[in-house]
Amino acid sequence: MTHSLVCAETVSRVSSVLNRNTRQFGKKHLFDQNEETCWNSDQGPCQWVILEFPQRIRVSQLQIQFQGGFSSRRGCLEGSQGSEAFNKIVDFYPDDNNSLQISCPGLRGTFSVPAAEVDRLKVTFEDATDFFGRVVIYHLRVLGEKV
Question: What is the DSSP letter of 27?
């Protein structure tokens, strides 16, 4: 059964937060299901989110909702088990809009995620649509099952 894998025990890290204002733009807003809040990175050439799960998972779907104008033209999903180095799972190419983008092959704004068993995930956002390299994400969901 596929369900959301991010839980209270999931440890998350991000590359940066706009003006270091974690209260207003921090990583917790990626997962709070609130339409009014978001993670807003600071400027830079590459932004990322790392998730460390309390147990091994089998990821099957990734959902991302950017703010249009502050998205990424290219992304990379990587995973690892234990303390191993991250290995690429899939490259993806999000649309620059406000829609929830789902890893479901064949639909516009979607991409396929090959099944992978991991303890850690890294989502890297490259080539930001914002001139300064900022990325704004309202929702980041990882779906799959516990192994």
Answer: G
**Is domain 11-146 given the CATH code 3.40.50.720 in the classification?**
no
Q: Tokens 């590459």 — which residue?
A: 46
Instruction: At 88, list the tokens.
Output: 């690429």
Using a 10 angstrom Cβ sphere, with 0-12 exposed, 13-18 middle and 19 or more buried, the burial of residue 6 is middle
What is the reported pTM? 0.92
Q: Given the structure tokens 């992304």, which residue do they identify?
A: 75
With contact defined as beta carbons under 8 Å apart, do 67 and 130 qualify? no
CA–CA dist 78, 73 (Å, integer) = 17
As a whole number of angstroms, the distance between CA 126 and CA 143 comes to: 22
Query: Residue ranges of the domains in the chain?
Result: 11-146
pLDDT in tens, the chain (147 residues): 678 999 999 999 999 999 999 999 999 999 999 999 999 999 999 999 999 999 999 998 889 999 999 999 999 999 999 999 999 999 988 889 998 887 655 444 556 688 889 999 999 999 999 999 999 999 999 989 999
